[in-house]
Amino acid sequence: MQNIYSSRPYAAITAIGGYLPQGRRTNFDLEQVCDTSDEWIVKRTGIKERRILEQGLATSDMAVMAIRDLCTRYDKDISDVDAIIVATSTPDVLMPATANIIARKLDLKNIWAFDMNAACSGFLYALDMGASLVETERYKNVLIVGADNISAFVNINDRSTNILFGDGAGVVWLEPSAEEGVIDAFMQSNGDGREFLNIEGGGSLYPTNDEIFTDERRYLRQDGKVVFKQAVQSMSNACRNVLKRNQLDIEQVDWLVPHQANKRIIDAVGKEINIQEDKTLTNIEYRGNTIAATIPLCIWENIKLIQKGDLLMLTAFGAGFSWGASLLRWMI
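The structure corresponding to this sequence follows.
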């Protein structure tokens, strides 16, 4: 795609980092607390294990570890960062923003920092906004964080959710580039899915100090059948839209990096857009669904497979509903 603003830079990912907690929740662990089995879980989700953050730590702690991993791996100076966008559905506290807390922990002064909540689509939304900041030359070094401590909101006895979700954080560093890095993004949302995937308690509608704040509203709730159907349809359509408007065929895409929600969803999207099965990157088997962290963590853990110049299609679907797809050229 030609840059019509020839005097302006492209935005490119120049570094990536990740963090996974040490704690593990296996299918055997879940067999002890609810009516399920390893065979049943693997068949329906493809998940064998999830990472669980230890008590006393929060989303910001995982994000800080991921950022430090990035700086170490790519010899980046954290003091160069002038903006942080944190995609999360599980902030440390309602306010201030988790991005502010991260800035304090990293001793970053006077930077532009805020949180974005688009659920499982959050990383793609944040990546699109961060790329815009770089392309308009308002900011030069932007961290895009996807991080969620979702296990804190999962009812361990609820088989519809406890088999799916785990904790983690991933981050990318965006900066100006003469070559196109982040090529395109297609994001959409509506309110049709509010009742099918949510955490109702703790907001202004159901505050914690009110008698209507019940245990049912405290935890993540999901209607799996509805979410499955909508996720496959929305992610597939988003990918096709991006391909069409960039005049590309699916064969030109080197890697599909889908949101790691469920292995059956991942496989269904791959078939819908007709991409080769071995061109889809996954890490769901031992990570589960880490919400906004799934896409950067999946890239981070599969980094040895990706070559500089490869074309990546990222796609996600989350509560709301929200969904989208991004197209980028790998520049590392």
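The first strand starts at residue 10 and ends at 19.
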